Amino acid sequence: MEKMTIGRIDKIDLPEFGLENIEAKIDTGANRSSIHCSKIEHRDFDGVDSIVFSIPLDGNDEETLFHSSDFTTKNIRSSSGHVEERYIIKTTVVIFGKQINTSFSLTDRTEMKFPILLGRKLLANRYIVDVDLTNLSHQLKNNTK
Question: For residue 58, what pLDDT is reported?
Answer without folding.
Answer: 64
